[in-house]
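Hi W.,

Here's what went into the run:
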Amino acid sequence: ILNVEQSPQSLHVQEGDSTNFTCSFPSSNFYALHWYRWETAKSPEALFVMTLNGDEKKKGRISATLNTKEGYSYLYIKGSQPEDSATYLCAPLRKGAQKLVFGQGTRLTINP
Amino acid sequence: EAQVTQNPRYLITVTGKKLTVTCSQNMNHEYMSWYRQDPGLGLRQIYYSMNVEVTDKGDVPEGYKVSRKEKRNFPLILESPSPNQTSLYFCASSFGQGGYNEQFFGPGTRLTVL
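Here's what came out:
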């Protein structure tokens, strides 16, 4: 089973501050990496699907980068707002595989 | 509205009583998948389907069955539920092959097996 590590497991940030967290995965046979946001009492929603080394994607105040050679991705949130409070999940996909393997997530709490 | 629906949303049952959790999507997605979420663990895949009549095991398939007779539906069957199947279950779907495109998740089904 693919080993996916997300750090930190939880994070408390003051409203207005920027933050980032990490997803680490085996770099061999990499094909794609997904990021999802999961708010409490809701279902996960896709943020990004990234495939190319050096790829950077942005959606509003949230952006992500990808390093496939060393096996990590960073998710950045600029100017955190209370609505950013959620668990952020990453899931890599290996070449030839048909399924995602999800990390345990980073639980982000924004303090007003 | 494009969506993935699951029923029931909440279910309390007893050991050994067969149950089915339905999943339906209206986006004409080829790929569908079932996950379970347990405290301290990430989403773990139970079964997935690449298209009609094509299903395969995920990482934790024991105790579950699935079928894909129609493109829009992918029910999860627990023939003889046990307490260790108490969990939060999500159905998801996506275009094309699994993992290559973003997945759309249903609202979740919280199952308790007594």
